[in-house]
Amino acid sequence: MKSFKNHISLVIALVSILFSLQIFTIVDRSIDAYKENLAKNYSLVIVSQKTVQNKDMLNKIKELASIEELSPDSVIQKLNTGISQKNIELLKVTLPKFYKFKLKKYPTPAKLEKIKKLLLQYPYITKVETFSNTHDTTYKLLLLFKNVISVLAVLILLVTILLIFKELRIWQFKHYERMNIMGLFGAPTWLRSAVLFRLSIVDAFIAFGISFVVFSYFSSSIWIAEQFENIGISVVVFDKIYDSLLMLGVSIVVSILLASFIVLGHKEEV
User: Fold this and answer.
1) Predicted structure pTM score
2) Contact 237, 26 (CB under 8 A)
3) Eight-class DSSP state of 204
4) Do 172 and 262 contact (CB within 8 A), yes or no?
5) Residue 43, beta-bridge partner list
6) What are phi and psi of 103, to 5 degrees?
7) What is the dihedral of CA 206, 212, 213, 214, to 10 degrees?
8) Residue 98 domain-assigned (yes or no)
9) Which of 14, 111, 139, 234 would give a disulfide with 207, using CB separation of 3.0 to 4.6 Å?
10) What is the Cα–Cα distance from 240 to 251, expressed in whole angstroms?
11) Rounded to whole angstroms, how far apart are CA atoms 234 and 147?
12) pLDDT per residue over 205-254, tens digit each?
């Protein structure tokens, strides 16, 4: 029971850090996936006085993914109130050409403005419709959501690090006398603090194990997959190789660093 109490506080604090890290990773991936989805549905509308050379424009403006000419038939159909076929054909010739430009990825407002300026450098392009109001609102909402999650993750990280530091400090006070006695007999610092480091590393592995099991379950959860499917994106909730190595590394590094700070700050009685 005593051994369990020695571990539980540190493990919970480490699990909190790993949970915050993984949730931030999931949110970041979700935003990237959503931006990719938006990019597929988002496009610019170009008005041109002549046929656009697709290959030339795609080579010059790297952000463009594809160019599609829009048929004027639907517009003419709405205007057709008894116009003869000959006049309709003549109208098609005199009308400017409309194109839909798809982008490789969802752009920032600054990048969108740059693309617009590059397109307007072509003398035959008379108008570029970017739907900037809708685009800017959507982009700012995504950015705000990501910033809020980042701030929350940092706050949780700071609070849990302070809790871990305090827990290790309490543990050190419990063994203060033993460490001083070992110091009097000439034991090096690493030997006197070996138990503290062992406790930190063991708890780091326990916290990693708990996090691994929980997020492995979440990654295979049908309910989680349905939630992402409802908003039209597919997200890797937990990569068992990359995310596992990242969580294990963070858990061990945080534990060892905090233990090292406590050991370095330990003052022996003379």
Assistant:
1) 0.70
2) yes
3) H
4) yes
5) 102
6) -105, 155
7) 110
8) yes
9) 14
10) 16
11) 22
12) 999 999 999 999 988 888 888 888 887 788 888 998 999 999 999 889 88
